[in-house]
Amino acid sequence: MIVIGLIGALFTIFIAGFGVTMSIFARARRVNVIECACLAWLLGCGIVSLLLWICGSFCSGFILQILVALTCIALGICGWRMKRSANAVFAFSKPTSAVEWILGTIVALEIAVLLFVAFKHTLGWDGLLNWEIKARYAFFNGGTIPSSYYSSAGRAFSHPEYPLAIPLTELWLYLWMGEPNQFWVKIIFPLFYAACAPLLAIFVSRFGGKCWIGLATAALLPFVPSVSASPGGIVVGYVDVPLSAFYLAALGYLLLWFKTDQREFVIAFAACSALLPWVKSEGRILWAVIVFVGFALSISKRRIPQFIFSIVPGFVLLVVWRIFLKLVHAWPPSDFSHLSFGLLLNNAGRLREIATTLLAELSEPTHWSIFWLLVAVAVIYFLGSRKLGGIAVVGAVIVPIVLYSLTYLFSTWPSYSAHMTSSMPRLLLHVMPAGWLAIGLALAQPRSETPSRTDVSSA
Amino acid sequence: MRWLSYVHIALWSGLFAIFVWISSPIVGPAVMENRIGPADTNRSIDAYLGALTGIERGSEKLPDAFRHLGKSGRLVIFTRDENAQSEFLGMMISYVSWPRDVQLIKVKGPTVEKELADIQPGSVVGVVFCSINPPTWLSNRVRLGSSIVLVPVTQDAP
Known about the structure:
The complex is a heterodimer. By secondary structure, chain A is an all-alpha fold. Chain A is built from 23 helices and two strands.
């Protein structure tokens, strides 16, 4: 029964995400099946968690579960009908050479291995005490997080102020399984990887014009040790890889919109970027960076109204979540002080050690191998080419790292360097797939040209 | 500019080879370690509590022990400051004791005499010591595991 419930939960997530993805891409006429499946998972998790949060404010228990499940199915049906009315067809771009077949098989095998490996580990410290704890308490409270949890001083260690995309996705699985099963719930984390790797391959293929380069980049992705062998990886139930998947998707669709001006890409960007602050608090920084990058790109193409419209969902979600935290008197975060110019000046002396610690982390082979050296080479390529799209990718990778590092100027830990050492490896994961996108684009650069509308849709 | 293409291919081939060469000995063993399962409901909680305290099925036994303290009332949990194991255990106790109100107190020194004296006994139903020895004068101790002691607070306690 537990496994049947698990399948039901995953199915409803996919159906909801599929419906929304279909409604976005129906106008494109040709819908890439793999891209649709990847986005279905990402958007499905966002939709289900938002529905549980919103509907949980006025109902609970079985009614809540039924209401959310029916909405998911309704979204799926709407998306399917929109696809049919637009005469859109599913397209599956088969590998065209032996190399592409081999690389595609490697990517599929890597996903299968990580899916298997995730079940070999328990949830990690943060995975259990920051994220799963919320899902468990909500499960025992009929599907809503008890309001007393947010203001409980004794549970302040679990960061009640953290956003709920992942905890409520875990809750959805619990509701369907009928118990808070900490073994099966881990399936959602490798599924985020399974969405991220093919999306990376698709983006690189579309920009570079060569499918094998995209597949090669995706095949190299799990060789970054932090993905599977370090704290924060997908095997211990942390949200850093899921956040990185949303960030990659937001960046990829932003760049596709910049290149082609196809409306579906800016809508996909709007959906993926809006969910960044809903996955993790650091998603606010990523959202701000991607908005800045997008603003710069839209100015160059004179598409500012469209772009401003696309950032409204993310902005609304940010504001509503802040208001909600105020209303429930959420225990304030204690790891960082409030930003102030005085404190900034006072702690400016930390900059040198922060830079040293950052460089030490970037060059740590047990976490990254030489991944950041590859990114550095890609950055040199883009700076040499002086193309706005390339500079945008560089900004989307480097600016979050700089901003993340600067936050330690406001760290309240007795040792800010210990704070940085413990959390920086996980924060760097957020831009890791975007870094691979930069590497893939640099790899394809000598032959890269602006793809036509047809190339971009069908790749 | 054909030579540039050769340099491009050679550069990236070399970098990717080094990347995989360094990564493989780290990623390979990480993938191979541990065995799958068991598919228990409270797999993560039980694994941590088992490793830290030796308690089997701690997710059930600890809430049972706290249930004997009464339906309401606060649980005070003492942990050793800057001792990751003790702090983690304290958080685990807090986690499994939901919905009871808890208070986590980090202790810097080797004794908890001063901190105990500061507690208002009115609403407190029990005190848990995580990797900390309770004062010798404190009676009525219940050892729940190798590094966890519960002291129920009765109405007539000082």
